[in-house]
Design goal:
By secondary structure, the chain is an alpha+beta fold. It has one domain (32-276, 311-347). The protein contains 13 helices and twelve strands.
Length: 366
């Protein structure tokens, strides 16, 4: 039987699922009992050394040792093969630029979204196709869930305690996908950012849920992207009032229609940045409640009430992916948390981006 955190043995005959509920170690769903054999297999996949501290997880700043990482992986239902992805994701999330302390404690609904690129997607059986944000795939579901369990059990981000999110969203159970590189006519995201195609990477961004974009009629890039601009150009999501970064996920049908006209990733991002605009007076409520929103936006944005301001400061703040099933003319806009956080892209092996030789679509800026 597994030891408790006080060093006591769990009594023989204990219903372990109920016991872990009683200890408060669950995200609300049943956990897999972390037997010594399963934990040992995950520690081995992490490279051994169970006491090695991989990172510290805010806001409680608990030490994430390899043993604790392995235990939470097992409880989430992960296979040992998923260990490199889970570890890389936690190292990315605890990078200072991400501001996990703020994400964990905010009243906003933001949750870390993980996007995986490269050969490891197929090696561990991740879903990048149909229902990519939904249920039915063990790797996607349990990798995202392991991250959440660690944010709870090690970081202390318990709802109502250190997690002050007013509403939350379902991604706070699991929010993990892979890019559909096989169905994409564009260079993969990590290749655009300077990695080689054979590299495997994780990308993390603090994000709202996906906002569906439907366009069944357009046969040109402008028509499809105008629909996405419409979803982006509202006054209620956090990018509108707080700038920062966002993500756009093109469904394969939309991506293929756009690519047939010769458009590349940088063309798409530039178009979205140029035409996804908001009247400043709308987000400032024409100043009838004072100028409270002004301080959250970049200084260079015009404060004229009739000025059209961008949703994010530059095209580089729009992170573009292709994912989802082959059929269906749908895409998604995913607002970020705002200027309080920056996304992080990290190689599974910890190496940084390489040169741009593999950037086949002419958009290699990191």
């Amino acid at each position: 039987m597994p030891d408790t955190d006080a060093g006591r043995q769990v009594p023989s005959g204990t219903d372990l699922v109920e016991w872990y509920y009683a200890q408060g170690f669950s995200d609300g769903l049943p956990v897999v009992p972390p037997t010594p054999a399963k934990v040992a297999a995950c520690i081995e996949a992490l490279g051994g050394e169970p006491g090695l501290v991989e990172c510290r997880v805010p806001p409680r700043w608990g030490n994430l040792t390899r043993e604790v990482l392995a235990i939470n992986m097992v409880m989430a239902g992960c296979l040992p093969d998923y260990a490199p992805v889970v570890r890389a994701a936690l190292l990315a999330l605890t990078d200072a630029a991400f501001n996990l302390n703020g994400v964990q404690a905010t009243t906003h609904m933001a949750s870390p979204l993980l996007v995986v690129n490269g050969p490891i997607r197929q090696a561990i059986g991740m879903n990048a196709g149909c229902n990519v944000f939904g249920s039915g795939n063990r790797a996607n579901a349990t990798i995202g869930r392991a991250i959440r369990l660690i944010l709870l059990n090690v970081g202390g981000g318990w709802p109502g305690d250190l997690d002050k999110s007013t509403l939350g969203h379902p991604g706070k159970y699991t929010y993990c996908i892979a890019e559909n590189e096989e169905a994409s006519p564009l260079a993969p995201y990590h290749v655009e950012k300077g990695f080689k195609a054979e590299d495997s990477t994780v990308f993390v961004i603090a994000a709202e849920p996906p906002h569906s974009v439907t366009n069944h009629v357009a046969n040109d890039p402008e028509g499809i992207l105008d629909s996405i601009c419409s979803a982006m150009s509202t006054i209620a999501h956090n990018n509108a009032v707080s700038s920062g970064h966002c993500a756009v996920v093109l469904g394969p049908e939309h991506a293929q229609t756009i690519a047939r006209h010769g458009w590349k990733r940088h063309d798409i991002r530039s178009y979205l940045w140029t035409y996804a605009r908001i009247r400043f007076g709308d987000i400032a409520f024409d100043h009838r409640y004072g100028k409270i929103y002004n301080r959250n936006l970049p200084a260079w944005y015009k404060r004229d009430l009739e000025a059209q301001i961008p949703v994010v400061p530059s095209a580089d703040n729009i992170h573009l992916f292709v994912a989802g099933g082959d059929a269906g003319r749908f895409s998604a806009f995913i607002p970020g948390w705002g200027h309080m956080t920056s996304p992080v892209l990290r190689a599974i092996d910890g190496q940084g981006p390489v040169g741009g030789a593999d950037c086949v679509d002419g958009a290699c800026a990191v």
